[in-house]
Amino acid sequence: MSYGPSSRHRFSWKKRRKVGSVGTGVLAALSSLPEGASARIAAGPMRTRTYFSIGDILLPICKPRSSADVQTYPLRRTCIYIPQAQVVHGTGGRNVIQHAASHHGHSGLSSARTTYFWRYLDLEGRYEVIILPLESSISRPLIVYRSLRVADDIETRDNLKTFRAEFKGDLITPDDEGYDVSIHRWAHNAIKRAGIVAYVKDPEDVARAIKYAVAAKLDIAIHSGGHSPAGNSSTKGGLVIDLSRFINHVNVDTEKKLAYVGGGANWGMFDAATIKHGLAGVAGTVHHTGVGGLATGGGYGWLSARHGLTIDNVATVVTADGSILKANDKENPDLFWGIRGGGCNFGVVTEFVMKVYPQRTTVFCGIVVFHPEKLDKIAAYLDDWWPRATENEGIVVILTRGPDGSPNVVCFVNYNGTEAEGRAAYKPLFDIGPLVDTAKDMDYLQLNVITNSLAEPGLNYYFKGALLSRDKPSADLNQEKFAKIMDLTKDRAHTTACVLEYIPHTKINSVPEGVTPFRRDLPGNILINSQWKGDEPEKLASARELTHGIAELFINEVGYGNYGTDQDAMLTRPGQTSPDKVKALFRENYPRLQTIKKKYDPNMIFNKWYNITPA
Ligand SMILES: Cc1cc2nc3c(=O)[nH]c(=O)nc-3n(C[C@H](O)[C@H](O)[C@H](O)COP(=O)(O)OP(=O)(O)OC[C@H]3O[C@@H](n4cnc5c(N)ncnc54)[C@H](O)[C@@H]3O)c2cc1C
């Protein structure tokens, strides 16, 4: 069966939008979505009520069994909506699709029920089909995915055999021991049931996995540290290229001051391997975060004040996009440009070559907790300090509640020097009188561990980025905003931290705009991080509402891509123009990124995170 040009069921999205004759309910909501937008779909047993949500619209459908059943899909890639008068029950692959399509595919029924088909190709080349009846009045059929060619079953099976025979790493499928571990992610709500997890051994394995996935029409996800709360390293039914098991080396050339870092290493491994030579680089502030996602999206760390972003310190990358390419200033310079901030859009980075620098082996750092009544004094201190903060300094302020629910102002302080120097530099802050002060000389390896307490693995998470005020810290840190945050978090269904990162940006923004795709005018980041337990979709919806509500108190612009979620990237409100956050993220660099995407990934097989459209 084909939905290609010759199919009588082919239906032009553009034509449909011009006609604009869909009815109420789901199709009305769908009709207001721009091409390529996402819808959230709850798949599960029929007839019990829960939600189908498109942007902010929640429509009742069926009860998902767990949060793993609620996923975001780009509409044109995975979904088929076909109206029909009679609901077809059951599952059964292509026969069901053919049956529904041939009976009702193009007949223009009105007041009919709409059936939602969800399908993906499993490893044996079969489709899984879930049919959900929806009440809707419609006048035209809508086939959102129209170009899928059903792979030949036998061909797909043979491909799998060849793939298994050639692959050097470990392949894990749902029936294998270790499957649950293989799909585990830092955020519980980022877990999706992959069809196959390929623990790649080397770049050739990556190329093999890509070749197989493309032939079998499987969605591809890339996994390094698994810390994308939005599930960007997960795929439902597709193939995960997982670098964390075998491609996690960190080899240091002390002469050249370069670290050769596997795309699946984490920052704890990086710190440990470099500091033993008295060297360090720009690493993430939570040491179990992965190198792959952080380093392709930008990369902020405590050492950014001194050395810039992680991407500013990448000398070479080796990527596999089916072929294996080295990218640096001289070889494939366009790819090298794109990959330093363009995320996972261009291929799988198997190795980063990173600059490392001499680093003292102890630093002054720790947690300093204040009573909220001291907030104005803290803000006054920061107003004075922030414009003159040096490359050795950095303070992260967190507006949150303690474990007993009491409002707190928590500061993580860092001084890249001795305790005496640090206490002198921050004297007015310590003089305000903290409730708790754990700051002291610590082993450098502790620096990227002190914030781990905010990042317990295994909970559900929702992240949203915002920006620091360009005016002064007290514009963000004041009693009025603090009271609003405490009001928004008063029911304590979620634990929410509003994290304001005062890491000096002078070095970061000294890199001219356009040298990488990363924006160079950001004043500093705010991360709003909500965590909760329990799989109920209502909790995700309220986490989103709460987190967005807090973001509204600050400069709520697209800033740092790695602090957004894909819900934010693709957020669409029916009836309104899409904000198109991908373009907003890359601004004037977007057309160049589109050209590079066209060259290296014209078919958008790498389609997670802020997904660039080739042009
Ligand atoms: C607890 C926590 C702390 C954080 N702290 C910081 C911080 O200090 N500084 C900062 O800048 N950001 C920070 N972040 C944000 C972080 O940069 C992103 O969440 C990042 O995506 C995590 O990378 P990962 O490899 O762990 O994620 P994964 O979930 O494995 O991957 C995330 C994305 O990166 C892509 N990707 C992963 N590996 C590769 C690769 N080898 N080649 C190509 N694409 C790849 C994936 O396709 C996916 O789209 C933090 C996030 C968390 C959850």
From TrEMBL:
Highest taxon listed in the record's lineage: Eukaryota
GO molecular function: FAD binding; oxidoreductase activity
Signal sequence coordinates: none
Keywords: FAD, Flavoprotein, Oxidoreductase
Family annotation (SUPFAM superfamilies): FAD-binding/transporter-associated domain-like
Cofactor(s) needed: FAD
Bilayer-spanning residue ranges: none
Limits of the FAD-binding PCMH-type domain: 189-359
Listed Pfam families: BBE, FAD_binding_4
Family: Belongs to the oxygen-dependent FAD-linked oxidoreductase family.
Name of the protein this chain belongs to: FAD-binding PCMH-type domain-containing protein
